[in-house]
Amino acid sequence: MNKEYSANKHTIVLIGHFGSGKSEIAINFALEAIKTQPTVLIDLDMVNPYFRSSDIENELKEQGIDIIKPNFAGTGIESLSLPADIYSVFIDSHEKVIFDVGGDMTGAIALGQYKRYFEMLDNLEVLFVINTKRALSATVEENIAQLQKIEAASRLKITGLVNNTNLSNESTAEILSEGYEIVKDVSKELGIPVKYTVGEPEVLDEFLKNYEHEKEYIGTPYPITRYMQRDWDRFIEKHSRKK
After folding, report:
1. 16 forms bridges with which residues in the sheet?
2. Angstrom distance (rounded) from CA 217 to CA 215
3. How far is CA 35 from the centre of its chain?
4. Among the listed residues 229, 208, 238, the one whose alpha carbon sits nearest the alpha carbon of residue 51
5. What are phi and psi of 31, to 5 degrees?
6. What is the rounded distance in angstroms from the CA atom of residue 232 to the CA atom of residue 109?
7. Which helix (H) or strand (E) holds 58?
8. How far apart are CA 170 and CA 191, in angstroms?
9. Residue 8 to residues 5, 64, 91: CA-CA distances in angstroms?
């Protein structure tokens, strides 16, 4: 590995269960990073046809973000084929590398084949994203079970938790607070720190008013723009044309 590139490279792997909001966070991270750093976003959601980060590929490329996605992604063809240029992100000059990993074991297993490359990185974060309002993520026990399955499949250790509890446009500070209590207990149980609490700006600000003295399980408050919600219309229109 090129040591000059390795020293400047920050790699973030976002992983979690279906509906946790990994893609949304990946997009926000990438759009923030591209302001100051060469950035690449790798979409490893190879099975789920909904809300993959590469669905807004053109918009991201317009901002200067490089995109790598599974072969045939977005064509309706289910394929486990991964492009060879994924290997290049471990050694090239991109300073910010963001992996958006599919919310099932297929994506985690695909990630596992790069284990020896991840081990060579100096600055790697593997973040488990939790939205307690999604299926199989509503309890401490369910989240721990999902996290451990993903760790085993990906062969990577989770280094941080992300509280992204939301109900899209119906999100409130109370909903984020409910997620906080579960994510806090997951953190305590596993000894994994909470790195981010994510929410739309108004929701996040209201939440923080009630938790000013409990920052240990909040991490960095991260205001987010939800780009993916518009894709429902795009997805319906796209598939209506195929009928």
Report:
1. 129
2. 5
3. 19
4. 229
5. -65, -30
6. 28
7. helix 57-62
8. 31
9. 5, 19, 11
Maximal C-alpha separation, the chain: 55
Prediction pTM value: 0.88
Task: State whether residue 14 is helix, strand or coil.
Answer: strand
Domain total of the chain:
1
Integer Cα distance of 22 and 28 in angstroms: 10
* Spatial distance between the Cα atoms of 62 and 202, rounded to a whole number of angstroms: 28
> Per residue in 72-115, pLDDT tens?
544 444 445 677 889 999 999 999 999 999 776 778 888 888 99
Label residue 238 by pLDDT band (50, 70, 90): very low
Domain that holds residue 221: 3-240
Output the domain CATH number for residue 147: 3.40.50.300
The average confidence (pLDDT) of the chain is 86
CA-to-CA distance for 218 and 223, rounded, in angstroms?
13
The residues with which 2 forms a beta bridge, in sequence order, are none
Contacts by residues 2-7 (CB-CB < 8 Å, ≥ 24 positions apart): 2/91, 5/91, 5/92, 5/93, 6/91, 6/120, 6/121, 6/122, 7/122
Tokens representing 8?
Answer: 């400047």
H helix runs in 100-158, sequence order: 105-112, 115-118, 140-154
pLDDT at residue 144 is higher than 70: yes
